[in-house]
Amino acid sequence: MDEWPAGTATGDLPSLGEIETRVFQWVTERGYLVCHEATAALGISPQRLDYAVTVLRRLHLLRPLPTAAAGELRLIAVAPDRAAASLLAPTEAELRRQLAEAERVRAEISLLAPLFEARCGERVTAPLVEIRDLDAVIDVIDRLTESCRAEVLTCQPGGPRAPHLLNQAFERDLAMIRRGVRMHTLYQHTSRRHQPTQEYVRRITEAGAEVRTLTALFGRMLAFDRTTVIIPHSDEYDGAVVIRDPSTVAYLCSVFDHSWTLGDPYTPSPRGDTSMDEIKQAILRLLAEGMKDEMIARRLGMSLRTCRKHIAESMETLGASSRFQAGYLARARITA
Length: 336
Prior knowledge:
Blueprint: H1 18-30, H2 35-42, H3 46-58, E1 62-64, E2 75-77, H4 80-110, H5 113-120, E3 128-131, H6 134-147, E4 151-155, H7 163-178, E5 182-188, H8 195-207, E6 210-214, E7 221-224, E8 228-232, E9 240-243, H9 246-262, E10 264-265, H10 274-288, H11 293-300, H12 304-318, H13 323-335
Helix pairs in contact: 1-3, 4-6, 7-8, 10-12, 10-13, 11-12, 12-13
């Protein structure tokens, strides 16, 4: 008979040993657990089998068979991935909550650094803070918005924004403008044909903001009083990076200023709008570079369907029968 294994501490999840693995395999092959058959087949004592079953049940790898007769307990095996999901879901949820709370507290505390810096007469602000949780990102943006006093710069690539996001942005932006904050916003040309964006821009410019558009933008960015910049996190879709290093902030703001001077004042796009010609020229240029449809659409802030429609129109205009030929003809036109 096998020796009884060392127990685990109360409250800890037990570990799988060789006997537990053999019992699980036997139940999987047999269909359900029959104790006397298992002890005989596996060569273990009833007490050792009871312990193995306890371990497997605590790990959610065995569960009672719902159709067993009254008073009869039959255990069947559970798929390991389902067992792990059932067992660890509460723990993972708690870890995510704790991580979000840690990011929130870190972001809040970091906002106090300028106060300490002013008192001590030296710069101790962390030049870069990573935030990986969306709620913490929103909280930081809200706090920076409330503390902004002079100027906010926003660069919003990706084409039209969702109406509910525009409504949220309007209330927040209007509060800043009423405090005397100057607001400069960059969108892509494709946003000119989006009715909710047209309405947002109309309302916010009437309040005093300025909005311009370009065919393509350098990236998403929020800059507050030219002292703090928020950019997307490279690894976390919902995350962000808060930058306070003066040299980096100054550089990013200068990139914004350069794009701002090249932008056109936002107006709803009428028929014959020259911005559409710029979009089509940009599509031809990216097509000539061999860029795929999905990447072109993402770069210019339009849907894939709209992008492919423009590509088809451009191919017809060029007299091209294939994307390869269109790219060649477009390249020849650009270099001519």
